[in-house]
Amino acid sequence: MRVIATMMVVMGCAGGTLAQQLHTLVLTGDALPGHPGVSIWRVTNAGDAFAQPVVNSAGHAAFTAPTRTTGGLVRRALMVHDGAAARVLAFETDPVPGIPGQTIRTIRDVHVADDGSVWAVIVTTTSSRAICRWRPDGTTSSVADTSGQSALQVDRHGRAMFFPGVVGSPRVGDDPTTLAPLYEGMPTVSGAPGLGCRATRRW
Predict the structure, then answer these.
(1) What is the per-residue pLDDT across 45-68, written as a single tens digit (0 to 9) for each?
(2) Preceding omega of 176 cis (within 30 degrees of 0)
(3) For the chain, what percent of residues have pLDDT higher than 70?
(4) Which residue from 138, 170, 172, 180 has the least number of CB within 10 angstroms?
């Protein structure tokens, strides 16, 4: 059985009815372009399924998928489909882009902006984390994160907000290397009348 990974794209509404189309992105068994001997692997359990699908306004989709080499090596890949073809951005066990000595263990919090850049949080084999961005031209940028558990959100314009895993201000920026605290210092409670939050915002 071949399992289809699809992305639902909302095309518009007509007469109050939601018009939708399903587009097949990849199939289990498909060969990975640029990676001889590697293919999309069959889904054997929930942990091996296609995961984290996201789509931008141009219909470009990013997702993770299980892969397998002819030699039997199974690992998850971060992939992007530009509407014409899918390509691999990174595999688990690859080096973390731009951070020497760190290897990818898990890929999570996947996002794709309207410019085609893909963002993700990488958990490394040493349990540290990194925020990474892959651009359509093939370049990457990353920054190490030492805050522990964390979360990443990216809007359609490629503006990111990163929430540290410890108490502190969220960080915002247009690239991992430019993330800066949203507030200069923690917000404080203002005086009367009433209660309020006062801080200097960078965003």
Answers:
(1) 555 567 888 889 888 899 998 898
(2) no
(3) 69
(4) 138
Alpha carbon 10 to its chain centroid, in Å, reads 21
Rounded CA-CA distance 34/31 in Å is 9
Place of tokens 């001889």: 36
At residue 196, φ and ψ (nearest 5 deg) are -155, 170
Indicate the SS3 state at residue 47: helix
- Residue 29 corresponds to which amino acid? G
Q: Tell me whether residue 179 is in a domain.
A: no
- The pLDDT of residue 186 is 53
* Domain annotation covers residue 190: no
Q: Say if 180 falls within a structural domain.
A: no
* 176 SS3 class: helix
Three-state DSSP class for 92?
A: coil
- Per-residue confidence band for 20, with pLDDT thresholds at 50, 70 and 90: low
User: Can you tell me the distance from the alpha carbon of 144 to that of 67, in angstroms, rounded to the nearest whole number?
Assistant: 27
Number of domains in the chain: 1
- Cβ burial 164-181 (10 Å sphere, 16+ → b, else e): beeeebbbbbebbeebeb
Does residue 164 belong to any structural domain of this protein? no
In total, the chain counts a number of residues equal to 203
| Cα separations in angstroms, 97 against 65, 112, 141, 167 | 19, 17, 7, 27
* Structure token pair of residue 192: 């009367």
